[in-house]
Amino acid sequence: MSDGVVPGGRRTAWAWARPAGGAGILGVLVWQLGTVPFLEGVRAISVWSLLAATAITALATVCSAWRWQVVARGLGVGMSLREAVAAYYTSQFLNSALPGGVLGDVHRGVQHGRDAGDVGRGLRAVAWERAAGQTVQVVLLVVVLCAMASPVRPVMVWVLAAVAGTVALGLLLVVRSRPRGAASRRARVLRAARADVRHGLLDPRAWPVVAGTSVVVAAGHTGTFLVAAWTTGTHASPAQLWPLAMLILFAMVLPVSIGGWGPREGVAAWVFGAAGLGAAQGVAAATAYGVLGLVATLPGAVLLVTDRVRRGRLRAAPVAVGTG
């Protein structure tokens, strides 16, 4: 009995720890800077900034959906681009509105898997698509931080050394832990992963789309942050803001947030302060970005309701026919 209770308890504790971590970061920022930066970030939002963020988000969403469509097709659970765009808008809205920042992706994977008749492949397609996008984002981040001035540029040599050592250690562990039995569960998982990568990511018809769309998506999110920064009164050039924005947005992947809130504002306060732009200004810009991002994904809320109504009617249709 204890074997079944402990893992469940750990999962429950982690489920509470993730939003608690984000709330803790926000609490520290309020304690140190007050509520004014957060309020200023909301008050500064204008019509033009909303229009710009919505347009940029639309482009990034179409590119993300295209990337997902290509990966899913390689895994044998393809869909139309229109379906992919609608589902991606919905997942982005759920990611922004719900704690954790990943529940929308889970919903997207499960729903598409059910529609395609294979929930496992549906979830794997989402996982590989998101992993590919974040990998490209990391590569771009490293290149930008090495090439452009930022508070972390002096330590980038040590960061690259640490990353290289970690990757080498990981590869070594994978090689040494290669399963001996061809029928073992680990062997099946590794074979499935290799097949997914080969067909979903590295196929000649897939990888150019995956790489190209990932670059556009990363640039789009960074551009939206620049809009938020300028909207809140940051007087800095794109060259000065670009590496800061990429570093701040990368913090959103940390698994301790409330719909993306928390680490983003914490890192924004740090890098803006270190760059001489002011920690409060960084929090205001990050707050504006969060609000702009939520508003720009509101079409996903409409699509979610519409999809629920449509599916409800489809489920009720056979019953209505039978009773008539």
TrEMBL record:
One Pfam family for this entry, by name? LPG_synthase_TM
Q: Which domain of life is it from?
A: Bacteria
Q: Cite the entry's keywords alphabetically.
A: Cell membrane, Membrane, Transmembrane, Transmembrane helix
Record keyword Isomerase present: no
Predominantly, its location class is membrane
- Compartment(s): Cell membrane
InterPro entries cross-referenced by the UniProt entry: L-PG_synthase/AglD
How does the protein associate with the membrane? Multi-pass membrane protein
Asked if Cell membrane is a keyword of the record, the answer is yes
- Annotated membrane-spanning segments are 20-39, 45-66, 156-175, 241-262, 282-305
Q: What is this protein called?
A: Lysylphosphatidylglycerol synthase TM region
The organism named in the record is: Blastococcus jejuensis
